[in-house]
What does this fold into?
Amino acid sequence: MPQKQAEGLVIKNYSGFYYVQDKMDNIYECKVRGKVKEKLLSGDRVMFTPLGMRQGILEKVMPRENQLNRPRVANVTRVLVVMACDQPKPDLGLLDRLLFLAEFNRITPYIILNKCDLDIHEHAMQILNYYPGTYKVIKTSARQNIGIDMLGDAISGEIAVFAGPSGVGKSHMLQRLIGQADIRTGEVSAKIGRGKHTTRHVELYPLPQGGWIVDTPGFSVLDMPALKREDLPQYFPDFTAQASDCKFSNCLHYREKECGVKTAVGEHIILSSRYQNYISMLQEVMERERCY
Ligand code: GDP
Ligand code: ZN
It folds into this structure.
């Protein structure tokens, strides 16, 4: 009798084996069937044939929703863009760029304001005042273990990756999240042989609320991807409502007259740094277009 196949998620690749988590949260150490030619990534959804309770044969890779290259991981559904309330003060330019890159990759971004145990820098105030209209904003303190449950809930059922500058507390947050996870998956961690580090592969950590966190920060490459200038505005969802007042339907909100977005900036409906950051990205896109 042929064994029945099951669905699973690749959470780790370690010395020639792929570790596949099934719907019941069991983890199988899988060899890949020879006919599978695709290069597998953590985050890949697969079909596999269980051989007993711990081993299996990986039979097939399902089509990917998306794929990040740094870190190399498939099917990410959440980017947690981390800024600190202070130390370092939030970099609004980087924030807007990371939000754009998330949108461009069709991944839902959340903004995490960590170090909420410190006094709030003016830039962090601006984040709290403006961005919740468009994005979910969560305040945390990895140091004092505040908001980590909320962060876990936000990841529930999702594959999430951290992004943001160094020093904002991403490693500490990861430790907090995984620390909780270890209570539940302690046995599993032992089984998949964590600690014996050889080659560095991206790993997805299963969390207690369900969902997975990628064990390394994302989007370390911040170049603008190849896109046409007229495709940029759609990745700024907070501009959409205002753009209905633009004279031209393909308005770039740049040199045009009668522009709803520029009017909204003048009326402080759109945050002016946000608009300025959009213009810098637009100029970069236009520079690159000239190179084609
Ligand atoms: P990463 O570079 O983003 O991974 O940041 P780290 O996790 O390495 O943290 C950078 C520094 O910020 C360390 O000195 C941490 O102790 C400190 N830190 C992390 N989280 C918090 C927090 O919630 N509050 C405060 N005050 N400091 C924090
Ligand atoms: Zn416009």
